[in-house]
Design a protein that fits this description.
The chain has one domain: Growth Hormone, Chain: A. Helices cover 67% and strands 1% of the residues. The protein contains 19 helices and two strands. Strands 1-2 form a two-stranded antiparallel ribbon. A hairpin with a 5-residue loop joins strand 1 and strand 2. Helix 7 packs antiparallel against helix 12, helix 7 runs antiparallel to helix 13 and helix 11 runs parallel beside helix 16. It is found in: Membrane. It comes from Lithohypha guttulata.
Length: 459
Amino acid sequence: MATNNEKGIGQQFDDPGSPIRQDVQQTPVVPDLDESHRKKILWKMDLRIIPMVTTLYLLSFLDRGNIGNARVLGMAEDINLAANEYNIALMVFFFPYALLEVPANILLKKLRPSYPGCAFYLTLWYAPQDLAFRQGMFFSAASAAGAFSGLLAYGIDHMDGTANLAGWRWIFILEGLITCLVGLAAFFWIHDSPKTAKFLDPTEKAWARNRLMRKTASGRLIEETESLQWKYIVQGLTDWQIYLAVFINWATACSIYGMSFFLPQIVRQLGYTGQQANLLTIPVYVTAAILTVLLCWLSDRVKKRSIFVMCLLGGMLFGFIFAISGSASGNVPGLVYAGCFISTACCYPAYVLTISWILPNVAPTYKRAVASAVLIGVGNLGGVFASNFYRSEDAPEYLLGHGMEIMMICIGFIALNVLRFLYTKENKARLHRQEAVANMTEEELADMGDRSPTFRYQL
C-alpha cells in the first residue's frame, strides 16, 4: 500500500510550511511501489509531457521575441517604422494575451488541457515536490528561445534577397511555419491527465493520481473537487496571495521581456553590427537556460522556493545596477554587457520558481486554474511596461530603461517579503483552529481548498 513518505498535493513539503499537520498518518490508497518503479513512472510521464510542452513554449517565446532580432537586421528602416511605433507594436500583443488567460484556463479544464495553459497543465501531473524541476525544464525553453533566436536570425539573414524578400522577413516566415506544424502535432500528442493517459497502466495511473490528492484531517487522501462552480472562479480572481505574487511576476517579466525585445539593440549600441549583436545574445540565454534547470532542481531537493526567488531578484538588481553604472560612466561596453548578462540569467529562473511557489498554494483545482491565469496573464502585463522602457531617444545609454527595471525589481522584492510574512502568520494562526476540523466532513475540508484549517502554505 502507499508508503508514509508519499505525499499528496495538499501535503507539500516536510517543513513548517507544510499544508497538513505532521501528526496525521496517510491512509493506504494504492499498491506499494518500490523506488525504482516510482522513478520509472515519473520518467514515463516526463518523456511524454515535458518534450512537447517545452517545444511549444520554445516556439511561443521564439515567435514573440524574434521581432527584436528582426529590428537590428533592418526591419524598422524597410517599413519606415518610427521609434515609438516599434514600442507600440510590442505593447499591443500583451492586452489580449492577459485578457484571454482566465477564460482559456477555465476552458482547458472544462474541455481538455490539450488546450493552451502549460503552467497549470503541469500541476495536473506532478506533485509539488516534483513540480519546480519540471516547470524549470519547460520554462528553460523561454531562455533557450533567446539563444535560438539569435542563432537562427544570424543564419536566416543569409537568405536576404531570396524570393525578393529581405532576410528579416524570412525570420517571421520560417519560424511561424514551424510553430504551425508543431502546434498541429501537439493536439494529437498531448495527454490530458494521469486519469486518461494511455501510456500508464492502471496501477501507474492510481499512483500518479494518489500523489495529487489532498489529505484531510483524518489522514484520508481524496481528490480535489473538479466541479466547476462560480465560487472557485471568484476565489481565484480575488485571492490576496495572487495579487501580491503578481508584483513579483512583474519584476521578473519586465526583465524577461525588456531583454528579449531590446537586448540585441542594446548590444548593437555598444559598437557591434546587427549580426554580431544577435550572436552575442546567445551565451546570455544559454546561461539562463542552464541556470533555470539547475536552480529548479536544487529547489526541489531542498524543498524551498521563496529564498531562491529572493536571491535571484538580488542578482537581477545588481545586474541592472552594473548596466546603469556602465552606461552612466561613458558607456563602458563590458560593464553594460555584463550587467545585462547577469540580470537576464537570473530573471528566467526567478520567474519559474515564482510560479512553482505560488500555484501549489492555491486549491482546489478550478481555483488554481483561474489563479494561474491571473498570475500569468496579469503578470505578463509586465510586457506592456517593458515595451516602453527602452526608447530609441534614450540610446545608447538607456538609463531610463535600466532604472525602470531596478524600480520593478525593488517592488517585487517588497511584495515577496510581505507574502512570506503573511504566509507564515496564516500558517501559525491555523495551528490554533484545529477544533473547527472536528465538525467538518473530509469533503467539506477538501472543498475549502487552501482555506481549510488543515492547509499550510508552502514557503
